[in-house]
Amino acid sequence: MPGENLSRDEAQERAALLSVDSYDVFLDLRSAVGETESGGPEGGPRTFRSVTTLRFRCAEPGAASFADLIAPSVTAVSLNGRDLDPGEVFDGSRIRLEDLAAENELVVDAQCAYSRTGEGMHRFVDPEDGEVYLYTQYEPADSRRVFANFEQPDLKAPFRFEARAPEGWTVWSNGAGELTDGVWKFAETKPISTYITAVVAGPYHYVTDSYSRTFDDGTKLEIPLGAMCRKGLAPHFDAADVFLVTKQGLDFFHDHFDYPYPFGKYDQAFVPEYNLGAMENPGLVTFREEYIFRGKVTQTSYESRANVILHEMAHMWFGDLVTMVWWDDLWLKESFADFMGTFANVGATRFTDAWITFANRRKAWAYRADQLPSTHPITADIRDLQDAKLNFDGITYAKGASVLKQLVAYAGQDAFLEGARRYFKRNAYGNTRLGDLLSALEETSGRDMAAWSRSWLQTAGVNSLTPQVILDAQGRVTELAVLQEAPESHPELRPHRVAVGLYHREDGDGPLVRYARAEVDVDGPRTVVTELAGAEAPALVLVNDDDLTYCKIRFDEGSLATLREALGEITDPLARALCWSALWNLTRDGIVPARDFIALVLRFAGRESDIGVLQMLHAWANSALVNYAAPGWREEGGVLLSEGALKELRLAEPGGEHQLAWARFFAVAASSEADLQLLQGLLDGTAKIDGLAVDQELRWAFLEPLAARGAADESALAAELARDDTASGKRHQVRCLAARPSAAVKAQAWAAVVESDALSNALVEATISGFGQPSRRDLLAPYTAKYFAAIDRVWAERSIQIGMDVVRGLFPSLQDSPETLAATDAWLTEHEDAPPALRRLVLESRDDLARALRAQARDIAAAG
Question: Model confidence over 121-164: pLDDT tens digits?
Fold first, then answer.
C-alpha cells in the first residue's frame, strides 16, 4: 500500500485551497466480459476505461495541488486545455497539478483495474452460470480506483455518471438512469462526497416498488424503490419484506426528522463478495448478499437485516446529507446510524424487542473494543486513511450508539430529535464537526453539551458500576449505593443516567421479578440511591436496568449467588439479557471462571425465550471453551457442551427456530465419534430429528465439523459442491477444504492466502476461517513464526482490506501460550517503525491473547 495513503494535514491543506464545482465521469465497462484481458500492461489486470472531467476552483491561482487516482495506467491528462505528460504527473496514486488557475478543468483518461478484493470496481464471475456482476465499494477512499478525484469527504460536488456496458446489462448509479444510444446516462446528484458515489452493473435480477408520502403542508413525495440480486439468488429473494421495512423506515424517519428524503430514487443492491455489511450510497445502497437467506434462518437474521436496512437509511441524513469534515468525526454518521437503526426497528417494524439485541450483541462488540490497547475516544484522532479504515470499529459504531442512547436519556428524546432536525436544516449538503451538532443539541435540551462531550465523546474506556447494599436488622435496605470504577489506563468517571432495579422471587420461590426501580444520575465514585432506602432486601440488584447507559455491570455477592441459582427465572427478557452480558464480561475479565459460565449456559440457555440472546449465548459458550477454559479441561468441557446441545436439540419444539439454533450449535460443539455419526446420518438421511429440515445451508454447517475432524474428505466436499454448485456453495467448500486435519492441507491454505493473490476477498475469508480449527491446534503450531515473518510483506504488497483480513485472521491465537505472547512482543519491539495501522492490529490480537491466558489461569485456579 505504499504511496496510497492520505494524511489529514494534506486533506486540510487541499480543502483550504480547492473547492469543487462538478464531476462528469464516463466508464466503459464492456471489458468486464470476454476471455481476453483489456487495456492493462502486459500480464497486468483486467481493466476498464475511465474518463473524468473535474471542474474546480483554486483560492490561490498559481498554486499546486494533486488529484487522486489509483490505476494501472493513464492514457491522457489535460489541465485547462494543456496536455500533460502522464508519465511525468502520475505516480500510480496521485496526479500532480501545478500552476492552477482560479477556475480549472481537469480531464483524466485512465485504464482502471477491476478488483477482486471488494475495493473499487469489484468484478465477480458467478460459477453457477458464468454471468459477470460488477459493483463499487469505496469507503473510506477507494473511489480513486474507479475515477480521478479529490478523495476526501469535505470536497463535495454534484456528479454526473455515464457508462457503456455489455449488451443485455443494466447499469445503476446514485441518480435515475436511462439507456440512450448505447450509453447509460444518470441524473446529476446533489453535492455528495466521493466515497458515497456508486455504480452497479450486470444482469441483476431487479424488482421494483414505490413509496409515497403526503406531508402536513400538502406536498407529496414519490420515491421509486428497487431491489436487486444475482439471478442465481432470485428464487430466494424475499424482496417484499425488504420493501416493507424500507417503507416503514421512510415513514419513521420522515416523522422524526422533518426533512424529506433528498436523493430521488432508493435502490438497494445485494451484491456478492462484499466486505462490509452494507454501504449508504445515496439512491443506491449496497448490501452483502448473505442478507438473502438461502435456507431457514431464525428471526434474529431478519431482525439484523432490518436493522442494517434502517441503519443505511438513517445515513441518508446522518452522513450523506450532512457529512463530517474528516474521519475524526466518523461518529457523526456511524454512531447515529447505529443508534437510529435500532431506534427505528423498535419504533416502526415488527422487531419491537430490538433493544434486547442491541444490549446483548452490539454492546458486546463495544465492550471488547473499549478494553483493547487501541481503544480511542468516540471522536478519534485520525491521522490518515489507514487510521480511518481501522476506525470502523466497535467504538465508532456500537459504543457511539450506546452513548447516544445515554444522551437520549440525559437530554430527553424530544430535545434530541429536535436538535437533529435543526442540524439537518442548517448543514444540508455541507460538512460538519463535533461542535455543530452539540450546539444544536444544547439549544434544544438546555443541557451542557460541552461537559457531556468531554466525558463521553472525548475520553476512552468503559466504567464499571457495582451495587452496594446495606441492610438493617429487619432485612430492609438501609442504604443502596452505586460504586463507579474506571481502569487505570482510562480513569475518567463519567455521569451516568441509570435505572437501578430490585428483584425478588415471587411468593418466595417463584420467578424473579422487579419490585422496585429508581432512576438516578450516577456521578463520581459513589452515588447513593435514596429512593430505594427502606425497600425489602433484594435477591438481585441490576444497576443498569433498562440499559440506559454504557457501562460494565457488576453484581454484589448476593446478586451473583442468585444468578447462579435462578438466572433462568428472570421474567423480563431485557433484564435477563443484561445479566447474561454482565456475566460474559466477568468471564472475559477473569472473574468468573470459564467453566462456570459454560455451566450457566448449559443450565439456563434452554429456557431462553429470545432467540437472538440464545444464539449469542451459543457463541459465547464456544468462545469460553476455545479461548478461556483451562487447556486441560477443554476436552471435558467440549463433551459437556455437545451433550448439552444435543439434549436441547431433542427437547426443542420441532420445526421451530430454537431447534434450528440448537442444531447449528450442536454442529459447532460436536466432538465425539457418536456426534460425528449423528451429523453424517442427518446428512445422508439415516438419522432423523423430528421437525429438523436439513436444507442446503444446514448441510454445509454439518459438513464443516466432519471435515475438521477428518470424517469428510475432499471427494465428499466435491460431491456436496456438485449438489450446490453456486457461489455460496463454493465459499462453503473452500472453508471446509481448509478445515481438514492435515499438515499438507494447512500448508496449501497458508500458501493460497499469504503467498498468492489469486483468491478473491470472499475466498480469502473462507480459507482463513477454515484454516484455524481449535480441534487440531498442533497442526497450526508451525505457523506462529511464519506469521510474524510474513505480515510486513503482506501489509506492504496487498490491499488494505486483504492485509487486515490476513493480519487479524491468521494471528496465532490458538497457540495460546506465553511463548506466543513473547513472540508477539518481540515483533512489536523489532517493528516500532511499522505502519501504525499494522501495529494496531497486532497489538489488538496480542491483547486478546493475554486476556485469554489470564482467564485460563483463573479457570485453572477454580479447579483447585
Answer: 999 999 999 999 999 999 999 999 999 999 999 999 999 999 99
Provide DSSP, 124-144. Answer: EE-TTT--EEEEEE-TTT-GG
Distance, CA of 514 to CA of 527 (rounded, Å): 21
| 762-777 pLDDT per residue, tens | 999 999 999 999 999 9
Nearest Cα to 753, choosing from 783, 717, 710?
783
Considering the candidates 151, 280, 312, 418, report the single residue annotated as catalytic: 312
DSSP code for 41: S
What sign results for the dihedral spanned by CA atoms 627, 628, 634, 638? Answer: negative
How far apart CA 824 and CA 830 sit, in angstroms, is: 10
pLDDT for 3 beyond 70:
no
Say which residue the cell 446478586 belongs to: 559
Question: Per the structure block, which three cell numbers stand in for 561?
Answer: 449467588
713: three-class secondary structure by DSSP: coil
End-to-end Cα, the chain, rounded Å:
51
Q: What phi-psi label fits residue 33: left (phi over 0), alpha (psi between -120 and 50 degrees) or beta?
A: beta
Q: Are strands 266-271 and 220-229 parallel, antiparallel or unpaired?
A: parallel
Centre a 10 Å sphere on the Cβ of residue 479 and count the other Cβ atoms it contains: 14
* Integer Cα distance of 204 and 635 in angstroms: 48
Residues 135/200, Cβ–Cβ less than 8 Å: yes
Q: Rounded to an integer, what distance in angstroms lies between the CA atom of residue 136 and that of residue 518?
A: 50
- CA-wise closest residue to 550 among 480, 610, 465: 465
Residue ranges of the alpha helices (H) in 167-266? 239-257
In angstroms, the CA 332 to CA 303 distance is 24
Angle ∠(215,219,225) on CA atoms, nearest 5 = 80
| pLDDT at residue 41 tops 60 | no
For residue 303, how far is the Cα from the chain centroid? 15
∠ Cα 709 665 572 (to 5°): 160
User: How many CB atoms lie under 10 A from the CB of residue 464?
Assistant: 17
Burial letters for 719-757: b for 16+ Cβ neighbours within 10 Å, e otherwise? ebbeebebbbbbbbbbbbbbbbbeeebbebbbebbbeeb
> Nearest-CA neighbor of 550 among 364, 385, 418?
364
- As a whole number of angstroms, the longest Cα–Cα distance in the chain is 92
Pick the more confident residue, 566 or 447.
566
Average pLDDT over residues 15-19: 98
* 86, burial (CB in 10 Å: exposed 0-12, middle 13-18, buried 19+): middle
Cα–Cα dist 485/492, whole Å: 9
Nearest to 494 by CA among 540, 538, 429, 551: 551
Q: Is 162 annotated in the active site? A: no
366 in Cβ contact with 463 (< 8 Å): no
Q: How many CB atoms lie within 10 A of CB 76?
A: 13
